[in-house]
């Protein structure tokens, strides 16, 4: 056993039971991160982003946003004069 593991076990053995819950949660999350890195698995957020990008469509139409904005303003504020 390495020195680091011995130190961790010693710290955990001295810890009260009610605080072990937090240690277990922390270890599970760290373990999950290392599994994702090792396996190359994607997190749920990464999978959701890929799903959204799959449904995204590219448009061949070039839009001149300044012209569109000018037209929209003209339509909206034409009756103000």
What's a quick, concise take on this entry?
This protein has 81 residues and is mainly α. It has 4 helices and no strands.
Q: Would you give an account of this structure?
A:
This protein has 81 residues and is mainly α. The protein has a domain at 16-54. Helix content is 74%, strand content 0%. The protein is built from 4 helices and no strands. The longest helix has 23 residues, at 17-39. The radius of gyration is 28 Å and the shape is elongated. The mean pLDDT is 83.
Q: Which secondary structure elements does this structure contain, and how are they paired or packed?
A:
Layout: H1 3-14, H2 17-39, H3 44-55, H4 65-77
Global structural class: mainly alpha
How much of the residues is beta strand, in percent?
under 5%
Please give the alpha-carbon distance between the first and last residues.
84 Å
Q: How many separate helices?
A: 4
């Amino acid at each position: 056993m390495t020195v680091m593991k011995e130190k961790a076990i010693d710290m955990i053995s001295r810890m009260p039971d009610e605080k072990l819950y937090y240690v277990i949660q922390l270890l599970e999350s760290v373990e999950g991160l290392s599994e994702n890195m090792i396996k190359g698995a994607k997190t749920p957020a990464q999978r959701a982003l890929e799903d959204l990008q799959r449904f995204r469509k590219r448009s061949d139409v070039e839009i001149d946003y300044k012209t569109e904005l000018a037209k929209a303003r003209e339509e909206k504020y034409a009756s103000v004069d």
